[in-house]
Design a protein that fits this description.
The protein is of the alpha/beta class. Strands 3-2-1-4-5-6 form a 6-stranded parallel beta sheet, with helices on both faces.
């Protein structure tokens, strides 16, 4: 399948590589051209000079972008994706459902927009083990099956445009809540004199352990020695969008708001570009 890929960040670079390795004809565009050129040299694939040119060269366009504004910029305008001729647009980044609806309304006549955000960190992206949350019906997802299968281990169809975005925010709010609670639990154990590795051993063996705690263990125990996988700034953005969504639907998220406030505080104190595991370090420093 001729597929265009936009957004070659920590996740996108692995996803585009897996599409190419699965035999799809991949074309790349990235805001930072050097990243696209470097990956294209490895994959022996094409790079375009604009989103519009990429859309004209492909059947399906997949985007893995950071937020609503970056997605809006790439899709709109005379050189945007929607100015091209592709008929299917799949937004895989963490977006607000309102933004997905704007994309649906702004798409060219006859074109299809599907939100398909993913769960899983960079290792899952590299190993094609992502979980894909598709805002569409199984029938609408079927033509995209070979693409989704190249990147993930499971695709869950949620029914309507925007549903994938809602579910992704719900999942991420849980992840960021676990991250905060882990930091508090570890800080408590350490304050009592328990060795951090021993404390983590117990947490990992307990009923409270989530998969993310297992694969993020190295970051929690030695953040500085490991690559950033998900920044505090992105976590704060996720929780802000989630809080806005909760207000829209009238749901109560006291724990989510507390998590958001701590992320904001950490960001203002220089943690923005650090991995979200650094919240453990932040909480240690806040110990009375």
């Amino acid at each position: 399948m001729r597929v265009g890929f936009v957004g070659l960040g920590r996740m996108g670079v692995h996803m585009a590589r897996n599409l190419s390795h699965a035999g799809h004809e991949v074309t790349l565009w990235n805001r930072s051209p050097d990243k696209a050129q470097a990956l294209a040299a490895v994959l022996n694939c094409a790079v375009t000079d604009s989103p519009r040119a990429l859309s004209n060269a492909t059947e399906v366009v997949m985007t893995m972008l950071a937020d609503d504004p970056s997605s809006e910029t790439v899709h709109s305008g005379p050189d945007g994706l929607f100015a091209g001729s592709a008929q299917t647009y799949v937004e895989m980044g963490t977006m607000s459902p309102d933004h997905i609806q704007r994309l649906v309304q702004g798409a060219p006549e006859g074109a299809c927009v599907i939100d398909a955000p993913v769960s899983g960190a960079t290792q899952a992206a590299a190993e094609a083990q992502l979980v894909i949350m598709a805002g569409c019906t199984p029938e609408e997802a079927r033509p995209l099956g070979p693409l989704f299968d190249a990147m993930g281990k499971e695709t869950l169809c949620l029914g309507h445009a925007g549903d994938g975005a809602v579910m992704k925010l719900a999942v991420n709010s849980l992840i960021h809540g676990i991250n905060q609670t882990l930091a508090e639990a570890m800080t408590l154990a350490e304050a009592a004199g328990i060795d951090p590795e021993a404390a983590f051993d117990v947490i990992e063996a307990s009923a409270a352990c989530a998969p993310m705690l297992k694969y993020r263990r190295p970051l929690y125990l030695d953040e500085a020695a490991n690559e950033v996988t998900f920044t505090v700034a992105l976590a704060r953005k996720d929780m802000e969008v989630t809080a806005d969504l909760a207000r829209k639907f009238g749901t109560n998220m006291p724990q989510g708001l507390s998590t958001l406030e701590i992320l904001k505080q950490a960001e203002t104190e220089g943690y923005a570009a650090r991995d979200m595991a650094s919240i453990l370090t932040y909480m240690r420093k806040k110990k009375r």
